Amino acid sequence: MFLQRPEFVQNLPFIPRDVISKNVVDLKIDLPHMPVWRKYARIVLPHIGLILLSLFYVVGGAFIFYHLESPNEMDIRRDTMELIEKERNEMLEYLWIKINDENYSEEELEQIALERVDNISRILFEAFDTHYVGLSLLQSENVNVTQGTWSMTTAIFFTSTLLTTIGYGNLVPVTSLGRMFCIFYALFGVPLILITVTDIGKFLSEQIVWLYTRYARAKHRFRDRLLQQQQQPLSSGAAELASASSPQRSMLRAQLHELGLDNVHIPITLIAAILIGYMSIGALLLASWENWALFDGFYYSFITMTTVGFGDLVPTKREFYIIDLFYIVVGLAITTMCIDLVGIEYIEKIHYFGRAISGARFALVNVGGKMVRVPDLMRCAHVLQQKYGQRKTSGKNKNDSTTTALLHQFIVGVEPMHQEILAIFDLLTLAHLPALNPCQV
């Protein structure tokens, strides 16, 4: 009994089995011959160019912010210091006059002194909050107003935290030109830095996958050798079968590696250990040169790596700003790597949950050396059950074993020796498949 091939199967191009076998073994991409250094240069140069462009954008923006905000800061600091000095002298002079005046009682003098102290306290608070005046500037007798809050180092730190969307808020533009430039600067800079950090994170994830793949293969080879040493001596037929299948398995593994079908799933515990370990190292370094507690350093690392940036803890040692920025950028790349390795995998599982079940109608099963789709196999099994199931059989009937074997052949099917070939067969078939109308599938 022959079943009609479905329309989906009829539209597939015919590919002889020897051609499929040859393509499975010799499937390679023919690339033009070029020197090795040019191949690596074509791979590396775009990434290096992206990093250099991001560095130029950060430093160039810092240079513009510095020249927009620094002169305004100097004027504000100079005016604020003059105001503080004036108010302090007036307060001392006024109190001295009132104390020497006998017409004022002790309660009245105390009230006058409190008013003057409240006034100077308000001025000092505004100077500390928005006028770039710090304690070291007030305590210094020879004030060097050129050493302001805005410098090239702090400007680079500001642009880096701005473009990475961390935004501590400890240093902000206050001029109209500075704020206008900040809008357009972040409008183009945030996507650029996001792409750069994602690219670095993708590179790190590929290296982690490569290292873990090497580790997994070494572990499998060690386990196979250990099992071979511990196994009992095989029979002659089993030994021949094992010796024949071993080269085929090696060949298939090599072809799957070239086609990218040997995906390795990185354990989530390993990714979490990398992230927590990096934060712990940063916590130790920050606690040592910022005089923070160890937990405060870890808290700052976590808030920064997640781009929350509360601003309650901010590095203040300018001599370590470059190291801080390097730590932040690498940490953001590691966070992106964790999302790339773990998050995307689970997102795809949730997104495509249930579609794999409906896609089983396109699966192929090897039955008697022929590739048959699962729905066709089930229809054939149903016909055989109706045809042979009505006959009365006995335990001594010679046809019992034949009928049972036939039903088992069509219902259960023969498990392919190498299921990996099915994936390669699907790739070769889809490569020659024309555009299909979704309504016909």
Give a count of the beta strands, DSSP E runs of length 2 or more. Answer: 2
Corresponding CATH architecture of the largest domain? Orthogonal Bundle
H/E element order: HHHHHHHHHHHHEEHHH
- Average pLDDT rating: 74
The 3D shape can be described as elongated
CATH top level of the largest domain is Mainly Alpha
Report the span from N to C terminus.
25 Å
The number of helices is 15
Question: Could you estimate the helical fraction of the residues in percent?
Answer: over 70%
Let me know the largest β-sheet.
Answer: 2 strands, antiparallel
Q: What key attributes describe this structure?
A:
disordered C terminus; 441 residues; disordered N terminus; 3 domains; mainly alpha; Helix Hairpins; 70% helix
Summarize the entry for a quick read.
Its main location: membrane. The chain contains 15 helices and two strands.
Describe the structure.
It contains 15 helices and two strands. With 441 residues, the chain is mostly helical. The chain has three domains: 113 residues; 136 residues, Helix Hairpins (Orthogonal Bundle); 81 residues, no CATH class. Strands 1-2 form a two-stranded antiparallel sheet. The N terminus and C terminus are likely disordered. Belongs to the two pore domain potassium channel (TC 1.A.1.8) family. GO terms for molecular function: outward rectifier potassium channel activity; potassium ion leak channel activity. It is a multi-pass membrane protein.
Note the topology.
Blueprint: H1 7-10, H2 17-26, H3 36-100, H4 106-130, H5 135-139, H6 152-163, H7 176-230, H8 236-259, H9 268-289, H10 294-305, H11 321-351, H12 355-358, E1 364-367, E2 370-373, H13 374-388, H14 399-411, H15 420-431
Antiparallel strand pairs: 1-2
Helix pairs in contact: 3-4, 3-6, 3-7, 7-11, 9-10, 9-11, 13-14
